[in-house]
Amino acid sequence: MLRELFGEPKRVDSGVLLEALNAIRTFLAHLESRQTEGASAAEITVIHRQIIWSKGFIDALDELEQSLFCCERFGDPIRKGFLEDMNAHETEEYQRFVYFFKNAFIRVFSILDKLGTFMNDLFQLKTETYKSRYSYFTVLRIMHDRHHHGALEMQLYGLKMDYKPTMDRLRNLRNMEIHYINAEMLDDLMQKEPLFGGRIHIENVQANLDDIQKGFEMVCRTLSVAFSYFSVSRAKG
Fold first, then answer.
1. Are 70 and 95 in contact (CB under 8 A)?
2. Residue 194: what are its φ and ψ, rounded to 5°?
3. Which of 54, 91, 134, 235 would staple 138 via disulfide (CB 3.0–4.6 Å)?
C-alpha cells in the first residue's frame, strides 16, 4: 500500500517475512479443516476465534513491514547529525523517518504481545492470574517456570536471547515514547550537562535503522517458530 507513495510496485514477499506468513497460513489451513471435520459447536466457536486471531497476525506483519519500508526510504539518505545542519527538505524527511520509526518499534512489541495473549489462550496458561497486565515475555517466563511446551519455549527463549541487545534498546524507546517523552528526545534527556540554546543533536538514524530491521527479523522468526509448532501440535491433537 505505502509503496505506491514512492511509485513502486507491490511487495513480493520473501525471506523471513515469507517464512512467517507461510507458517501462519499453514496453521490457518489446519484450523479451517477442523471446521469441516465434525467439531462440536463449542469447538467451532474456539476455532473461529483462533482463525480470526491468526489472520490478524498476517495484517499486523504487513503493517510492520510497510512501516519498516518507509523508515528505510526516509532514513537511508540522512547523514547529518544536527537538525540545524539540515535544509527544509532534509528536516521534513527526518521528521517522516521519525514518524515511521516510532510506528515500527511500537508495532514490534504490539505483535509480540498479541502472540503472548494468543499463546496464553491457546495453551490455557491463565497468565492473567499471575499478572493482570502481562507481555509476551511474561508468557514465555510462565511457560519456562511450568515446563509447559518446553520444545517451543526453548526455541522462543533462544530467539529472545539472540536479539536481546537490540530488543532492549527498542523497548527503552517504546517505553519512553508511550510513558514519558518523545523517543527522539531521549538523547537530550540523557545528557549529563544539558546545553541550553545549543544545537539540536539527532539520534543515530543508521543505528536505529539497523535495530528496527533486527526487531522485524526477531518478530518474523518468532512467529515462524510459534506457528510451525502450533501446526504440528494441532496435527498431533
1. no
2. -55, 140
3. 134
State how far the Cα of 203 lies from the Cα of 51, in Å rounded to an integer.
41
Cell numbers found for residue 143: 511457560
Picking from 109, 104, 180, 163, the residue whose alpha carbon sits closest to that of residue 138 is: 109
**Cα–Cα dist 29/118, whole Å:** 17
List the one residue out of 85, 106, 104 whose CA is nearest residue 177.
Answer: 106
Instruction: Work out the widest C-alpha separation in the chain, in whole angstroms.
Output: 72
Q: Which positions ≥6 away from 129 have C-beta within 8 Å?
A: none
pLDDT tens digits along 33-64: 887 777 788 888 999 999 999 999 999 999 99
pTM above 0.85, yes or no: yes
Residue type, 158: G
